[in-house]
Amino acid sequence: MLPEVRPHVSAPLAHQLEHQLSLASHLGVGRLDVERVAGIAVVAAAHTDGYAAARHLLGLLAALPAPTMAGERFWSDLWRSSGTAYLLPVNIKALVLRSLAGEGIALARQILSAVDEMTPPQRVAAGEVIGQALAESDHFPDLKSQVIGELWLRDLELTACPACRLQVRRSGWTETFLDAWTSV
Q: Per residue in 56-70, pLDDT tens?
């Protein structure tokens, strides 16, 4: 069975195919030769890490209580403990929705801004709030909530950083990279 193709998710990849392989979006399948299909596979593989990073960020956020009335206390506690409103659902909703459509860079930047804004005591307090919520969900019944929360924050940070770096790489990186290495 073939996976479902959603045009809004493949838009960044389609742009890269047009730019790097001169493949017009209206080009019919009958006009694709083996070399062009191989080129499409290479460009698609080069972008999988960016999509994987965005998916992982969404998975981390999905582990937290849903931003509903039931999860309202968690989010207000997180806001108070972290000292930043960057992670509040109202501030990341549009970014989460864009990430679901394949564009995770804005969410990654927002996450890095939130983590950067926290002082060490605020990070510890935020980790405690996050850890308690994750421990209550029975995903980590044997770990201390502070350890769980700190690991979650580290994972969030370590996923957001490469996601930002990958976006920089997408815009003209091939030509710049090739020029730099062929001139050595």
A: 888 888 888 888 888
